[in-house]
Amino acid sequence: MSYSATSQVTVTCHADAMQVLSKPQLFSNQVSQHISVPNGMDDEQHQTYRQLIEPFFSTTAIAQFQPACVALVERQVTALIDHADGMTIDFITAFARPFALDIQWLFMGWPDDYKPLIQAWLQAQQQAQRRQDKSAMVMLAAEFEQHIATLAKLAQQQSQPTVMRQLTELRIHGRALSLAELTSLIRNWTVGELATITASVGIITGYLAQHPQLQQQLRNNDLPLRESIDEILRIHAPLPSNRRRTRCPVQLAQQELPSGTPITLVWPEIQRDAAVFPQPLTFNPQQNAAHNLLYGAGVHVCPGKPLAQLELETFTRILLEQVSCLELAGQPTWSNYPATGFSSLPLRLSA
């Protein structure tokens, strides 16, 4: 743990991270002046809103979504092979980014003709974040809210019970969610997940391209797929960080922290802490699974974990089934913090 002159605490130790994650009475998720449903909520408020969204990720809900997820992945992997069989491609541009968008679009049940507007918004948002252009980000936040308002109206006119329509029908304390609440919830689901799914798909594929023996073990079902994916994403974390704030004076790593101290959990370093993972860069899912914090821990553990697991497992399984040769075709480029994953990943694949 480091403690800067500006009273910012950076957590890089697994034990410290577990203390932060397991003691919500000491470490608050309310770290922004803007509403964040339910990520940036504490205590009963968090529980109330989280209970609203958990049914969307239930065993039944995920089973219902699975056939559509499988069909989409099969179409997109087949199209990738048809387009790039034996060729060198940038996998991030050619597959990872469009796949992350399409799978989230499918899950939400949004109309396809609205996709270009959201794509343009995402590009503008990413550019504003890179520039740290706060005025642009404020304008883009308002624009996103208007997009959600339009998509909510469209969903209410649909006869199909899409996820978007079900979200507009949610009730809390006897009332419908406000537009601000609905926008915050959907922004956490979609915008946040787009980055992590893009990063995860790229990281998994890049790792497999560099480890042909692991590819074959997974094809032969010699290793459990889910645990293998989780271990790859422990070695190369798809999420850069999370934030917390102390709710009262606390002691963390023998350091006394006053109430209100901002804390940043740095996942790439936490997930490679040699005190917990003796060989942090070595693939060893059986040894490391119990301490893997890929989806967090405690009351704020990622509610969308079952959906992410379905998407990543389906993608990896179908990729390995349809591709016999997957290899690097150049030097990958890693994204700069606070982004994570590959910014480019040159690959060559063959059916």
Overview of the structural elements:
- By secondary structure, the chain is of the alpha+beta class.
- The chain has one domain (2-92, 196-350): Cytochrome P450 (Cytochrome p450).
- It contains 13 helices and 14 strands.
- The strands form five sheets. The protein has a five-stranded mixed sheet.
- The N and C termini lie far apart (47 Å).
- The mean pLDDT is 94.
- This is Cytochrome P450.
- GO terms for molecular function: heme binding; iron ion binding; monooxygenase activity; oxidoreductase activity, acting on paired donors, with incorporation or reduction of molecular oxygen.
- Belongs to the cytochrome P450 family.
- It comes from Pseudidiomarina maritima.
- InterPro entries: Cyt_P450, Cyt_P450_B, Cyt_P450_sf.
Strand order of the largest sheet: 1-2-10-7-3
* Radius of gyration based on Cα positions: 21 Å
Strand content: 5-15%
CATH evolutionary superfamily: Cytochrome P450
Number of DSSP-assigned strands: 14
Q: List SSEs in N-to-C order.
A: EEHEHHEHHHHEEHHHEEEEHHHEEEE
The domain count comes to 1
CATH topology description = Cytochrome p450
Task: Please work out how many helical segments DSSP would assign.
Answer: 13
CATH class: Mainly Alpha
Largest pleated sheet: 5 strands, mixed
Q: Rough shape?
A: globular
Q: Helix amount, in percent?
A: 40-55%
Low-confidence stretches: none
Q: Average pLDDT value?
A: 94
**Structural class, from helix and strand content?**
alpha+beta
CATH-defined architecture: Orthogonal Bundle
C-alpha end-to-end distance: 47 Å
